[in-house]
Amino acid sequence: MINSSQFMHKCIKVIENNRQVRKNMKYRLLLASGTLILSCNAFISPSLSQTIPKCAEYEEVFGFQVSKYATQLQGGAILNIKVAYRYTPEAIAQNTYPDFVPIRKNIDKFLVNYPHQGDFWEIVNKNLVKFILDKYPQIASLNIQLGVSPTPKEPYSRFSSIYSTRPNNCPLRF
Q1: Per-residue CA distances from 124 to 64, 102, 141 (Å)
Q2: Which of 16, 107, 143, 152 is least enclosed, having the fewest CB within 10 Å?
Q3: pLDDT value of position 174
Q4: Taking the model in full, what pTM does it have?
Q5: Would you say residue 37 has pLDDT above 50?
Q6: What is the pLDDT of residues 128-162, one digit of tens each?
Q7: H or E segment to which residue 161 belongs
Q8: At residue 150, what are phi and psi to the nearest 5 degrees?
Q9: Would you list the domain boundaries of the chain?
């Protein structure tokens, strides 16, 4: 088993010896329970780097909005729901675009049947994004924004926005 010091030295060696890796290197530092953890994500071999999608080549995005959606979540609220998604290359090549009407109906069904009425909007939204991605494999990347209108109890507008991209797919760009 490699210890963290050996891992860091190997990462540094790879970075020093490979200009492409330096360009594609991502550093993540996490402070967890007072321990510094270094995660070194590098695309070292050409075969791995070939699996990275070419995101700049082509993009198809569709979006829709559901305005003034009444829900009983969190004691009752009016939501403005914005949905945008990028299609997978397979969906584009095979013309298997999902119709947004069933997606909208699935959002409604999800919110009506949501089991945890008191969840924060961020948690509701995160679960909604996962639900839609699980149901629609043609969607490569998804953004859902739940805008919450002011109420007497919470007299200000607020929103939750979640972006999620499937592995080896391109993220939404706006």
Answers
A1: 19, 19, 18
A2: 152
A3: 66
A4: 0.69
A5: no
A6: 999 999 999 999 999 999 999 999 888 999 999 99
A7: strand 158-165
A8: -60, 150
A9: 4-49, 61-165
Torsion sign over Cα 48, 49, 55, 57 = negative
Q: Summarize pLDDT for 3-15 with one digit per residue, the tens.
A: 445 544 554 554 4
Between the alpha carbon of residue 45 and those of residues 17, 24, 52, the distances in Å are 13, 12, 12
Which pLDDT tens digit goes with each residue over 49-85? Answer: 445 567 767 789 999 999 999 999 999 999 999 999 9
- H or E element that contains 159: strand 158-165
Specify the DSSP element, H or E, that contains 132: helix 121-135
CA distance 119 to 81: 17
Q: Which residues contact 75 (CB under 8 A, 6 or more apart)?
A: 117, 153
Structure tokens at 165: 């991209």
| Alpha-carbon gap, residue 84 to 62, rounded angstroms | 6
Nearest-angstrom CA–CA distance, 159 and 167? 26
Q: Tell me what percent of the residues of the chain surpass a pLDDT of 90.
A: 60
Cα(34)–Cα(104) distance, integer angstroms = 44
Please tell us whether the domain made up of 61-165 is placed in CATH 3.30.930.10: no
The helix (run of H) or strand (run of E) holding residue 4 is: helix 4-17
Q: Specify the residue for token string 């969190």.
A: 74
In the numeric block, which tokens belong to residue 62? 């569709």
